[in-house]
Amino acid sequence: MALILTVLLPLCVGGWLVAGGRHLQRSAVGLVSLVTSVVTAAVAIWGVIARSSFDRAWLPDLGSRLHLRVDGLSAPLVLLTVGIGILVAVHGLTHVPEGGRPSTFAGSLLVVEGGALGVFLAGDALLFFIAFEIVLVPMWALIGRFGDPHNEAARKDAAARFALFTIGGSTLMLLGIILLIVRTGTADLTLLPAAVAHLPHGTQLLAATLLTVGLAVKVPVWPVHTWLPPAHTTAPTAGSVVLAAILLKMGTYGLLRLPVLTVSNGFHSIAPVVAVCGVIGIIWGGLVCLVEQDLKRLIAYSSVAHMGFVALALSTGTAAGFRAAAYGNVAHGVVAAMLFFIVGGLKERWGNADLATARAALRETWPRFGFALILGLAASLGLPGLAGFWGEFLSVYAAWSSGTTLLRWCAVIAAIGTALAAAYALRVARLVWVGDAVPVERVAAAGRDADRSEMFVLAVLGVVTVLLGIIPAPLLTVTGDALRALGVGS
Amino acid sequence: MKALLWVAILAPALASPLCLALARRGRMPAALVAVGSGVIALGASVVALLHGPVAAGADATVGTMPPLDAGLRIPLRLDGSGPVLVVLGAVTLVSLCVQLYATSYLRTDDRYPVFAGTVGLFTAAMILVVTSSDLILTLVGWEVMGWCSYLLIGHWSRKESARRASQKAFLVTRFADIGFVLGVVLLATGARSTAYGDVLSHWGAPGVNGTLRAAAVILLILGVLGKSAQIPFQDWLPDAMEGPTPASALIHAATMVAAGTFVLARLSPLLGESTAARAVLGISVSSTMILSGVLAFGQSDIKRLLAYSTVSQVAIMLSPLAAAGVAGSGPASFHLYAHAFFKALLFLGIGWLGLVGGGTAATALRGTARKSALVQVSFGFGLLALAGLPFVVGGLSKEHVVGVAFDAAREGDWVAIVVLVALLVTVVLTAAYSTRAWLVVMAPDSGRHGPENEQVVALEPATTGDDHHAPPSGVDPAVAVTLVLLLIGTVFGGLVLLTKLLDVNGAIDWALTGVTVVLIIIGALAAWLLSSGWSVDPAVRLVGPRMPLFDRGLGVDGLYLAVVAVPVLALAKLVRTVDDHVVDATALTGARSIDWLGRRGDDIHRPERPATGLVWVLAAAVLIGALGVLTWH
């Protein structure tokens, strides 16, 4: 019961805010969304701890049930989602972008949260797809209506791109899901792997390809990543955060859950392609970050690189790889959320995020943002002791230890990608963080440093980044147990 | 033992966030925390030394990670063996001295608490590398140290030169670390464990794939060459002089650059098995120690002279490993330990001299050591140890290094012969530049304004400007304490050999010592003769107008740019163009064509625009579709 509440609460409150909350004041909207996200988080934590599940007959003809459940693979992402939900709500107390009513903005964020929770909790392929699609429209509204107020054309372009790419991907995924349901007669994710194993290899290959390509758009894996930078650049701060920390995770989680674990034989045949695309993404994203002039676009491209590590880890098909992917997923969620909160805050103050414009150094004028930025950059370049390290190191290990020549080369190239990450992280630090001394009177004129809600958000994310870095065992154990329960690894 | 190692790591590590948190309350609380944590760490390592080492195999476990796959164990163990405790003692002592010294040296710096915190984290990372008995823990400490070096070198980030130097340091070392990471991955994959013991027993067993082992060790060596500033990565370290002097002392003396020596010493059995790996290391360190010895002599800035001397000394530290594998690990660790004392002493000494002289250029420093007897004595002993005179700690350790290389060379090993020749040449060079440094700082006052000095001033203005302008009137108590502590270490540190904690492979060969002493006298005498009796800086006479080339390290920086930075940026621009005009455009073609079809369809449905040929296309499509449906079996 807890799980259905977890999904429905944000969906219903969010839907009500969008549809019926128009008369609400900004402060009331903020309070409603904060309370909703906190209660959702409490219920979700209860559901995760109790390992509760929810299972009702739904569409018997399709073998589809209204089935929600939580395991070690989804639990970290559920917690990440509800956590980000609270942070976004706190941030929304003081930061509501222009472009529409505050209620629409907060409602859209809650619907996205509810949809994402549905994705992570779904125990049924059809339910997974529906939840996946719920997220689309509110996200489109967040980008298209509440995005960068300075550039309407870019906003429309970004929102349209987001919608087109994602719908295109979802359509392929739906075809894959329908293929599986029709051939096996069930949509239950726990029953599917065994049922799929009896299908002819051609069918498995087709299903795996459709699912992988469809989900790869959402991740995004190179070369279907070009929707992400414009979406991130124009989206409002909270939208960017949700996009990076939650939406992309739906893609990687879906990849792990559907093609990799459910159609494993079919996926095994296309895994080399995924590995190569992942590695190209690592280098590609890293290189673009060396010359990109817009800070938000730069962080978006760094996400492409980080997701490349996750794709590489998944393609190894080993338990070590899946753990690396799961860790990298959560770590990127936390670190990217932090970076987008910072960069979004900077863009609100600067008016744009152009790196070519000379500005007073953050370290001199806004030390809070400065400290958070340098911590986020360190985590982003995979510094040990911070969240990003384990996922990336274990990806390289998993790729090398899987033994095939192709994957070994991928491991080497991925390791080179970590040096590129250092190069772009330091490039940002040198352009934004450090600089000449600033006279006291100009410090005051530069505007205000992070406010209280931003400080809260950044402090929480900073602490989680450090904890994930120095105490990796719990998350690795949880995912390892779940994988063992699914018969992967020892 | 386990608890003591924990304390030694955690005390400085926790000091780091604490210093940051206390930053707003002024300097005093941060200084107390920083120095206090240093004292605790030193205390823990002294108690550990008194307890004596743990027998091999009874490592202290820090924590255990769950098994990651059908086999990879990441036990995260710490080690309490003899060499570990000795090096730990040196690291914690130097770190405490640096913290103490910084309270005085950075007393006008508004970011002192941040500096103290970073030094704490840096120390913790180094202690982790030293005590680690697990490849993953080593990698963690290794990388965190690199990051802290970025922060410390760039501490005075209001200066463009410091910003560039810190970025360069991190990028060069991180680039080399690609090798380190891959080496760790290779070794762990084979052994299915990251514990040193498992790795050594797996890869040391007969019948293991020798090529893969050599590849793994060479990859690790690449990472070590980067962090230790050996050819081809040597150029970042002299630039790192942009950092505050206490940071330089820490980076050079006891941590980062020396860390690789200890890691390789721990893994030396693998090195011994692979001649290819020893050859890579041997060629790099042999050429590095000579080249940096020459460059050190010709620097216009004495702090940069010390930087190049570090490069050369770290090459000496690594050389026994290249020459003799396992047998070299004792002398390598001993030289690391010895270097920690005398290099910290020299850096902290020159920091004070720089304050007196208003900069660290040779011209500014002339005669400054005459201002304080304590600095004079300690700087002098530091230089004696650097030059490697017998009985001072640096001399003892260098004799062991030369001895072990000589033994290996006698057996006809070509790598050892190369290393031995390089070592003997380096002895002369080291003696020469040490003497030069002494001649500069002890020059009579009358020599301060000679014409040749003005020439050097014009060539290279003081590169390491400090935030302080008033020269100190005397040696501050904090500085005096650190100098005395390090002086004691430098003079009596060699007594550690009596404890048998370090296995340095036998006693000193007195004949060989005689040879090196003669070589030292030759080098020193040459420098002295060039100075014409205190009146001229020997480097000015010998190097003269070529000094700017020496200062630029023969222009290797430009080489880095041309070989790595420029091509990578060009590739990045290309990739960005392709991303915009090919990848994105292809993806959008689908959307555009659907858009186009939609508009055409729209056109058809408008009565004012009569249907065109498109109708026929559509009709044909419908017909084909219908045929397909009808003929479907």
Describe it for me?
- The complex is a heterodimer of chains A (490) and B (633).
- With 490 residues, chain A is an all-alpha fold.
- Chain A has one domain (2-485).
- Chain A has helices at 2-20, 26-50, 75-94, 102-121, 125-134, 136-146, 152-184, 192-197, 201-218, 228-234, 237-262, 264-291, 295-315, 319-350, 362-365, 367-380, 388-401, 405-433, 440-445, 452-470, 473-485; strands at residues 53-59, 64-69.
- A two-stranded antiparallel ribbon of chain A has the order 1-2.
- Chain A is globular and about 75 Å long.
- The mean pLDDT of chain A is 90.
- Chain B is mainly α.
- Chain B has two domains: 2-541, no CATH class; 563-630, no CATH class.
- Chain B is built from 26 helices and two strands.
- A two-stranded antiparallel sheet of chain B has the order 1-2.
- Classes of the chains: A mainly alpha (490), B mainly alpha (633).
- At the A-B interface, helix 7, helix 12, helix 14, helix 17 and helix 18 of A face helix 5, helix 6 and helix 25 of B.
Strand order of the largest sheet of chain A: 1-2
Net shape of chain B: globular
Order of helices and strands of chain B: HHEEHHHHHHHHHHHHHHHHHHHHHHHH
If you average the pLDDT of chain B, what whole number results?
Answer: 85
User: What global shape of chain A is seen?
Assistant: globular
Task: Give the number of domains of chain B.
Answer: 2
Strand fraction of chain B equals: under 5%
Per DSSP, the total helix count of chain A is 21
Helix content of chain A: over 70%
Distance between the termini of chain A: 32 Å
- Main β-sheet of chain B: number of strands, strand sense, barrel status? 2 strands, antiparallel
Over all CA atoms, what is the radius of gyration of chain B?
30 Å
Strand content of chain A: under 5%
**Number of distinct helices of chain B:** 26
What is the CA-based Rg of chain A, rounded? 21 Å
